[in-house]
Amino acid sequence: QVQVVESGGGLVQTGGSLRLSCAASGVSFRSYDMHWYRQTPGKQREWVATISDNSGAYRTYADSVKGRFTISRDNAKNTAYLQMNSLKPEDTALYFCALGAKYWGQGTQVTVSS
Fold first, then answer.
1. Gap between the Cα atoms of 18 and 69, Å rounded
2. Of the four, 24, 71, 73, 91, which is 20 to 30 A from 53 by CA?
3. What is the mean pLDDT of the chain?
4. Average pLDDT of 20-47?
5. Burial (CB count <10 Å: 0-12, 13-18, 19+), residue 46
6. Which tens digits make up the pLDDT trace of 45-84?
7. Closest by alpha carbon to 53, among 105, 96, 108, 98?
8. In Å, how far are 18, 22, 89, 94 from 9, measured between CA atoms?
9. Starting at the edge strand that comes first in sequence, how are the strands of the sheet with 79-84 ordered?
10. pLDDT at 101 > cutoff 90
């Protein structure tokens, strides 16, 4: 059974940092591109960042987070990360990770206070 669990969300002030984790089990983790998305009530889910499978040599970011967020992966731990720096109130959202487009977690809430 495949499980995907996000963690690391919380409440932080503007300008602060958080690191989100996405732990997967029951799946060949290294074989999947990893994605982070976010969603706020009443809005469509927004893609945030992607890291390619295996070595993770290829990384892309939404313009809204470029230069502030960093995606990474540790295949030995079956875990992906999203380091978020210089957080803004508009980064407030429920953050999800996904293995390819196939397996999704339940999300972790990030709230940035002004």
1. 10
2. 91
3. 97
4. 96
5. middle
6. 999 999 999 999 999 999 999 999 999 999 999 999 999 9
7. 98
8. 7, 11, 14, 9
9. 3-7, 18-25, 79-84, 69-74
10. no
